[in-house]
Amino acid sequence: MADRSSHDPLAGIAFDRLPPAGAYGVAGEPGVVASIAEPFVALVVARPGKAASVVDRLNRAFSVTLADRPHAAIEGNTTVIGTAPGRFLVLSRTDADLFGTLRAILGTEAMVTEQSDGNVTFSVTGDRAPDMLAKGALIDLDPVAFHVGDAATTVIAHIGVTLWRSGEKNWRVLVGRSYEASFTRFLIASAAEYGLRLENQGSEGRG
Prior knowledge:
This is Sarcosine oxidase gamma subunit. This protein is an alpha+beta fold and 207 residues long. The protein has two domains: 97 residues, Gyrase A, domain 2 (2-Layer Sandwich), CATH 3.30.1360.120; 77 residues, Alpha-Beta Plaits.
């Protein structure tokens, strides 16, 4: 585990390298804890005229209630995020054949695309998490405005992301895997003043 509490927490880390797990920024209890979760991910796009039926099928299959707005519905090991009319991201911690599961649920009413290899999900928690994320976000992430369950497809630090608030102090950020190192560097630089503990990172977290 790295301990980088120096003035420049990214000193000595090549720009194109994934920073290692460890403590970054000010010493003491961290205001932000970030880790990488790698759930199985799929994109669902309802066929024309089938959006309502797709919502109903997803609700019944995963015991969730999808809202008619950008929203993350979480139940057990599954998260279903409405990102646009008739478009949903489905994430699972346990279903290695999520693509097959969704095809069985939705039949011909939606197109399903496997997305696991192309994306990585960051879990960001702590009292200062919204302050840190707000440094790079183009939307208002104040907890008064961005409630638990709210979701958005937006840009953070010039990186396209899907963001949702999964709990009172918990946030999740889905980014393209090719931007994993860049987004990790943003987390470190932006959270340094609050203290950051970076867990489950790189090859150490992918055994």
